Structure prediction request, 282 residues.
Amino acid sequence: MTGESVLPPKVQYVVKSIQSLKPLPSSVTRALKEIESPHATAGLISEYIGLDQALTALILQVSNSAYLGYDRTCTSLSDAVMRIGFKRLKSILMASTATGMLSRSLSGYRQGTGELWQHSMTIAVAGEWLAQAMGYPDPEEAYVSGLLHDIGKLMLDQFVLADYAEIVDLIHRYQLPLWQVEEKRIGINHAIVGGLVAEKWRFPAVLVDTIQFHHRPAAARGNHRLPAIINLANHLASKVGSSRSALFSSELHPDTSAILGLSEKVVAHYEQRIREKLEFSA
Prediction:
């Protein structure tokens, strides 16, 4: 981004808000460090997680998630860690700071309490399945990218609320995707903002890139496949589910099929499989 002094006032405010975000809690960083240890144990990791009540509740919630194929019988934190596995646990820990935020209502985007979290979980599950189906080497990256792909909306919600009528009018009158209208009205879009948040929390570059370019994967600086997978997941999951919000951005970028080497027949097949997976998990 260019120097902050020449940025539009709204964008300056967003950038300052991101800069003032708290770092990952010590309970999270200690657990992440322990996971990377060759001598990691579920018991010690559980002890670190157990120091944070909200984090404990999140891990138990995920370990009993029907979306992830689990039954609702896990009540012990150590059992939850074992059930989830260290790799998935690492993704959840990285996203944990954002999960409480994702459960909020968004007045500007017209999403009620929990709706953004539900959407994010859906894209995480769909993205992971697509990554596995297409032989992407690390499907866990797709999961956490899907979980966090819309985190930038939290920082833009107040500006969308102020310009709601104009934004909806531009979307419908000119058939523009939401992220382009955000740029016109606010000066920055939610995907770019999400990437800045991910950078603030020192996430791996591939996750930053994917969050930042999930609406235009060919613009990613490195790995194009992962942003394309999340773009496809967002598109297909929207066809399966429904959103009451007029600001639900689910367009399939023209470059996505080319990046992933997909035909219309294969996309239709993936849509049906994701429909089955999400309906079974509901």
Remarks:
- The mean pLDDT is 89.
- The first helix runs from residue 9 to 19.
- Residues 127 and 230 are 6 Å apart (CA to CA).
